[in-house]
Amino acid sequence: MQIPLVDLRAGYEVIKDEVRAALDEIFEGMQLTIGPNVRAFDQEWAAYCGSKHAIGVGSGTDALQLAIRALGIAPGDEVITVSFTFFATAEAIFYSGARPILVDIDERTFNMDVAQVADRITPRTKAIIPVHLYGRAMDLKQLLSLAADQNVAVIEDACQAHGAVLDTGKKAGTAGRAGAFSFYCSKNLGAYGEAGSITTDDDELADSMRQLREHGQVTRYYHPIVGYNARLDEIQAAVLRIKLKRLDRNNQRRRELARMYNELLAGVPGVTTPEDPGGDRHVWYVYAIRMAGGKRDALREALTERGIGTQIHYPIPVHLQDAAQFLGYREGELPVTERVANEVLSLPMYPELTDDQVTYVADAVKAFARR
What we know:
Blueprint: H1 8-29, H2 36-49, E1 53-57, H3 60-70, E2 78-82, H4 88-96, E3 99-103, H5 114-120, E4 125-128, H6 141-150, E5 153-157, E6 178-182, E7 196-200, H7 203-213, H8 234-244, H9 247-265, E8 271-272, E9 287-291, H10 296-305, H11 335-341, E10 344-347, H12 355-370
Parallel strand pairs: 2-3, 2-4, 4-5, 5-6
Antiparallel strand pairs: 1-7, 6-7, 8-9, 9-10
């Protein structure tokens, strides 16, 4: 049996006719950038998230970068975030000239350790970027209170958390000054290419980010500021509109699959399954187990031999990446992050995954553990 980590073709088969019809309509009209689909998706995504504004952009990295820029974060400033995340979280901070201040994670949730944040705030701190890793919404109440007391902006990195619900009762991406989303092809809400969005309730901030996404112009060819080429295109917006209608249903299927994995892998020697917070708190973009005893890579090889796709999200934390060495972090400074990065392994997870396929994957993990 061959089971990929993500099966984009299976997802496409469900919506193929709708996608082709939408593309035909776009190519008949030939309005390819910031046209009717982009404007409609911005409205529909904002409504889904419960946000006043959504600004479609070219990627999740664009979303983070524009939010940071619109908040006026600049060289000499500091932004607190985690090291256990995709590199783009820190990359967007680097682009601004600000310095990432990296903190450790909670070993139970893999999300930011708020106690460490309080210790790292300085007069130079301008923002905090919590990451809702793997689709699990971070508990934000304490962090939001801390940020408000210190007059520090919160930018949510919700790039993996489409539809996840916060402890505030709101959807991920709507509790801070801005929320950044990625619609990379493998995401719960994924385009057929690159795409992203920024959510905010701040009218002035929204206007600024709309201007920034289109070379800093408000009227065409008049550029009061230097912006970016960060537009969402019509093709991706049309695909996202079709997929958005199925997002809640697909997220629910992911929850069912995660529960099934957890039940089947309970008590397997050396394997730690991810905590299920219940309700809509987790949307399971990634289902990652931990394999103890230095056996993670061997387990991955064994699963590959059985035709099972896996991935490591993420093998090298930001603070140990070559590109971040100038920050001065050393191995051992973020022990929980480093321990988790050495043990996590992502198993197949997508809505079209069958119960039989999950059982096959779980049986392969158990067979390895018994060796």
